[in-house]
Design goal:
This protein is α+β, with helices and mostly antiparallel strands. It folds into two domains: 52 residues, no CATH class; 55 residues. Helix content is 49%, strand content 20%. A hairpin with a 2-residue loop joins strand 4 and strand 5. The termini are far apart. The relative contact order is 0.09. Keywords: Coiled coil.
Length: 114
C-alpha cells in the first residue's frame, strides 16, 4: 500500500521537509510502497515534479549501519594484521640478535683456533 506524506520543496523542487500528517503549506504526495524505505532514509534526494514524487537514480546501495559494520570488520582485520606484524618484527629482532651472537662466537672460535 502506498504512503501519503505531506511535503514542502526547495527552489529546485527537492523535498526539504515532510510530515506524515497534513499541515499548512505542505502538499500531499503519494510515496509508492517500494520507495518508502529509501524516502525515509533520504527524503531530500527526492523531488516533486508536477505533483508527483520522483525518485533519484543515485541512492547509496548500503545503509549507514551496513557501511559502519563493514568498516568495523575491516578495522578488526587491520588490528589483527598489525598484531601479527608486531610479532614478526619482534621475532626478526630476536633472530637478528641470535645471528649476531653466533657470528661473534664463530669469530672468537676462529681466533682461538689460530
Amino acid at each position: 500500500m502506498n504512503q501519503t506524506i505531506y511535503a514542502i520543496t526547495d527552489e529546485q523542487s527537492f523535498v526539504s521537509d515532510f510530515k506524515l500528517t497534513a499541515a499548512d503549506g505542505y502538499t500531499a504526495v503519494t510515496v509508492p510502497l517500494a520507495w518508502v524505505s529509501d524516502f525515509m532514509k533520504y527524503p531530500t534526494k527526492f523531488s516533486i515534479i508536477d505533483g508527483a514524487l520522483k525518485a533519484p537514480g543515485n541512492l547509496p546501495t548500503l545503509s549507514i549501519d551496513e557501511l559502519k559494520q563493514k568498516l568495523d570488520k575491516a578495522n578488526d582485520t587491520i588490528d589483527t594484521q598489525q598484531g601479527t606484524i608486531t610479532q614478526l618484527q619482534q621475532a626478526i629482532g630476536t633472530l637478528t640478535g641470535q645471528i649476531a651472537l653466533m657470528s661473534v662466537d664463530q669469530s672468537t672460535a676462529t681466533k682461538d683456533g689460530e
